[in-house]
Automatic annotation (TrEMBL):
InterPro entries assigned: Cro/C1-type_HTH, Lambda_DNA-bd_dom_sf
Protein name: HTH cro/C1-type domain-containing protein
Lineage: Bacteria, Bacillati, Actinomycetota, Coriobacteriia, Eggerthellales
CDD domains recorded: HTH_XRE (cd00093)
Domain HTH cro/C1-type: start-end pairs: 7-61
PANTHER family: HELIX-TURN-HELIX DOMAIN PROTEIN, TRACRIPTIONAL REGULATORY PROTEIN-RELATED-RELATED
PROSITE patterns: HTH_CROC1
């Protein structure tokens, strides 16, 4: 995935550790590692904070990751819908 490579490259260009990035955008260091190793995908708020931290557009960060982003959004929507249905049943 392009985003994983972009995140690592942008972080290393600025000489930042994963821990420093995690503190700057309010997530755990493990979360940064998961993003950089293509295990998970950042949410929209995190993408915005990353783009501000690295002084690039969100488009530049996620270029080539549109399909993956669509899948993540679809999965988030399914989870939200399932939670809503459970709440209505309870």
């Amino acid at each position: 995935m392009e985003l994983a490579r972009q995140l690592r490259a942008k972080r290393e260009e600025r000489g930042l550790s994963q821990d420093e990035v995690s503190k700057a955008i309010f997530v755990s260091r493990q979360t940064i590692s998961n993003w950089e190793n293509d295990k998970t995908y950042p949410d929209v708020q995190s993408l915005l904070l990353l783009s501000q931290l690295f002084e690039v557009s969100i488009d530049e960060l996620v270029r080539g990751d549109v399909v993956a982003m669509q899948q993540a959004i679809a999965e988030d929507s399914r989870i939200l819908l399932a939670g809503l249905l459970l709440a209505l049943e309870g």
